[in-house]
Amino acid sequence: MKIIAVGLNYKEHVVEMGLAVPEEPVFFLMPETSILPKKQPFYYPEFSKKVQYEVELVVKINRLGKYIEEKFAHRYYDEIGVGIDFTARDIQNDLMKKGLPWEKSKAFDGSAPVGKFIKKENLPPVNNIVFHLEQNGKIVQAGNSGSMIFSIDKIISYVSQFFTLKIGDIIFTGTPVGVGDIQIGDALKAYIGDQELLSVDIK
Ligand code: MG
């Protein structure tokens, strides 16, 4: 199983990062060890002083595919959920400055909690899914899949030109504006609509 994570997929988030809007999807891979086991807390890693949350819609691939045409991409997933792409921002900024890969800041153990999935038929249309993140009961990020620069179907089509997608692969589809720091003791909860799908305590 592999995890594909799209970066810079919401315009206002690209602006808050001080970067240029990408012309093609930007993505990186995470190993399966980056999945935070269910119900386990996230332990603040010792190697960073600035870990940030990024709430994202996540898509689970349910068919093997390569060179998937965008118009057929909807056939390759039937469940959507939410995840948090925890990012050691201090390390990422340093790596970006040096033009180095991001994985150390993005793909470390437990950096990718993934919540419960919902069947597509029980969700609004894929281009109009609202989701949000609460930090200690306060909404800190809110997004709508309709604001993605590259749609879920476009991402699947694009990524599959390079990587065979397999059953069970997970795609993080990018975070909306409002990324922020986590602190030890925080309680994070992520929702699609008003359904809580993911809860993570920071220790
Ligand atoms: Mg992200």
Shape: globular
Ions, cofactors and other bound molecules: magnesium ion
Q: What is the H-and-E element order?
A: EHEEEEEHHEEEHEEEE
| Radius of gyration (Å) | 16 Å
Q: Give the helix proportion (percent range).
A: 10-25%
How far is the N terminus from the C terminus?
A: 27 Å
CATH class: Alpha Beta
**CATH homologous superfamily assignment:** Fumarylacetoacetase-like, C-terminal domain
Main sheet record: 6 strands, mixed
The helix/strand class is alpha+beta
Report on this model:
The chain has 203 residues and is an alpha+beta fold. The protein has a single domain, classed as Fumarylacetoacetate hydrolase, domain 2 (Alpha-Beta Complex), CATH 3.90.850. Helices cover 14% and strands 33% of the residues. It is built from four helices and 13 strands. It has helices at 11-16, 89-98, 103-106, 152-159, and strands at residues 3-7, 26-30, 51-53, 55-61, 77-84, 87-88, 114-119, 130-135, 138-144, 170-172, 180-181, 187-192, 195-201. The strands form three sheets. It has a six-stranded mixed beta sheet, with helices on one face. It has a four-stranded antiparallel beta sheet with strand order 9-8-12-13, with no helix packed on it. The longest helix has 10 residues, at 89-98. The chain starts with a strand and ends with a strand. 41% of the residues are buried. The mean pLDDT is 97. Bound molecules: magnesium ion. Magnesium ion binds next to strand 1.
Short description:
The chain has 203 residues and is of the alpha+beta class.
